Amino acid sequence: MRILSGMQPSGDVHLGNYLGALRQWVHGQGPESFYCVVDLHALTLEIAPDVLHEQTLNLFATLIAIGIDPDVSTVFVQSHVPYHAQLNWLLECVTSYGELSRMVAFKEKSERQEGYRVGLLTYPVLMVADILLYGATHVPVGDDQRQHLEITRDVAERFNHRYGETFIVPVGVQPRVAARVMDLQVPTRKMSKSVSSPLGTIYLYDEPADIERKIMKAVTDTDGEMRFDWEHKPGLANLLEIYASFSEESPQDVAARFTRYGDFKKELAELLVASLSPVRERYREVRADEARLRSQMVSGARKAIAVAEPVYERAARAMGLLQI
Ligand code: TYM
Questions:
Q1: Contact by Cβ (8 Å): 13, 56
Q2: What does 226-249 look like in DSSP terms, one character per residue?
Q3: Which of 8, 119, 233, 266 would you call most buried, defined as having the most Cβ atoms within 10 angstroms of its Cβ?
Q4: Known catalytic residue: 193?
Q5: Do residues 78 and 35 touch, judged by C-beta distance below 8 A?
Q6: Using one digit for the tens of pLDDT, what is the confidence trace for 152-200?
Q7: Active-site residue 107, yes or no?
Q8: Domains of the chain: residue spans and CATH
């Protein structure tokens, strides 16, 4: 089993990122795991250069603060490994315009802005390159990345069929609960970095008072019945999944332990504060030592390049690019 996953340094890490993806990264860590801060992906939407720079360091520090050991797993920044952009080009020539324009994430993001960047359309191909370069068999991601995983499999299979067996065809892995954490104010919309909803989004480094306020104000429903039911009670179901994810129970079992929403929310807030405070403290320490972070980035990039280079070269050769 070989694991690869990536996250964009495009905003502060929120509870959806943490429960949907990052906690799975921690569980899956080992010498066969590759975790990547995908800074090239963050260029597909407007982002100020100094913000991107800062957030790349922040996200790298977050990966370490949540418990990923860079001496065990390979943790690196995408743009430090030139083969991502290079394989991206080869794979763009194996992908059709039609399949990219059908991507839901592209449709949603392109509708929100005029004159969107070409990179927003071709973004999934770069993600395919990220995954295939490392021969990943498993890709731990939240539910919103399913379509991108499908295209990864399609492109890998098409390449292998056209140019001979070159790539491993990976599968996506979602957590059992909280694979799609919803906005606390609009529980029919996913918690997101790009659509900001101040009360609806819990950030990993929110202060305890903010976490409590956001949980207590989270939208539920008026029937007052503690029951896990996404269709009729999405607000409560979302909170139950968040609780269940931290307490490692089923959402149904959590629901059965409470009779009143208020009591449940109070305990959920306490659970979140107790679980996230150590991460916040550790982050402050890790982020303060920038020299160390930079040297960890260098060794991560070296380890990543050693794996990615031969895979890229095999793909280039398979397509007929002349090697010297
Ligand atoms: P990104 O940066 O938007 O999100 C990072 C991870 O967080 C998950 N996630 C969520 N999970 C549950 N509930 C939510 N509300 C929620 N919001 C985000 C995402 O599913 C993701 O796992 N395209 C990817 C980045 C990427 C990548 C890759 C991932 C680039 N290359 C290679 C895996 C492998 C993205 O934009 O994730």
A1: no
A2: ----TTT-HHHHHHHHHHHHHHTS
A3: 8
A4: yes
A5: no
A6: 999 999 999 999 999 999 999 999 999 999 999 999 999 998 776 889 9
A7: no
A8: 3-173+289-318 (3.40.50.620), 208-284 (1.10.240.10)
Residue whose CA lies nearest to ligand 1 atom number 4: 7
21 pocket-lining for ligand 1 (C-beta < 6 Å): yes
CA of 262 to the centre of ligand 1 (A): 31
Amino acid at 200: G
The ligand 1 atom at the shortest distance from the C-alpha of residue 7 is: 2
Q: 290 CA to middle of ligand 1, Å?
A: 25
Which tokens hold the place of 257? Answer: 């332990």
Distance (angstroms) between ligand 1 centre and the Cα of 146 equals 10
Task: Report the chain's terminal Cα–Cα distance, integer Å.
Answer: 33
What proportion of the chain, given as a percentage, has pLDDT over 90?
94
Q: Can you give the pLDDT at residue 2?
A: 98
Map tokens 């107790």 to a residue.
Answer: 274
Q: Is 88 in the pocket of ligand 1 (CB under 6 A)?
A: no
Rounded to an integer, what distance in angstroms lies between the CA atom of residue 233 and that of residue 27?
A: 30
| Test site for ligand 1: of 12, 144, 152, most ligand atoms within 8 A of the Cβ | 144
